[in-house]
């Protein structure tokens, strides 16, 4: 990802710079972490906290970068960016809460604002009694439909979220002005046959 001139946050030049900046920054009050939330090392496995922090920072950068595009490109690309971020939110619930058994309070600070899955919806998903209940809350946001399988797993939700992304990308590719969004949604040779 390239820096955006009017981005609210400067983008580090390398992964090492990004990791150093994450370690040096305090958590943002109410907006989720740039760094891991206070006490996360006690509540989350270190590798999970670091990976989730890097993912959240990347996705927040994508959302911030939308502001650097003209209105037509913003309108065309926003559904894809929001799908990517809401896919992240869904996997945070599926893997963090239901696979690893991590607590809502430890996972909620990783919410990236500006998408269909708001902080409150993420809280509801994290508080669901089972994965099917959490997934049902993501329909129309990260999933096109509720999965109809008896033994729901994170892997199934991951595949369904990617399927939604591809559907959105196909639509953009066919309908857009062929600006930035059309370029971003262009499939690799033979990928959609």
Fold topology:
Elements: H1 15-24, H2 40-43, H3 46-65, H4 71-99, H5 104-107, H6 119-127, H7 131-137, H8 154-175, H9 180-184
Helix pairs in contact: 3-4, 4-8, 6-7
The SSE order reads HHHHHHHHH
Total number of distinct structural domains: 1
The major pleated sheet works out as: none
Count of separate DSSP helical elements: 9
Mean pLDDT: 80
Label the overall shape: globular
Briefly note the structural class of the backbone: mainly alpha
β-strand percent reads under 5%
The count of strands amounts to: 0
Rg: 17 Å
Poorly predicted sequence stretches spanning 5 or more consecutive residues: 25-41
Task: Please estimate the helix content.
Answer: 55-70%
**Spatial gap, N to C terminus:** 28 Å
Describe it.
The chain is an all-alpha fold and 193 residues long. The protein has one domain (18-181). The chain is 57% helix and 0% strand. It contains nine helices and no strands. It has helices at residues 15-24, 40-43, 46-65, 71-99, 104-107, 119-127, 131-137, 154-175, 180-184. α4 runs antiparallel to α8 and α6 (119-127) runs antiparallel to α7. The longest helix is centred in the middle third of the chain and has 29 residues, at 71-99. The protein is globular.
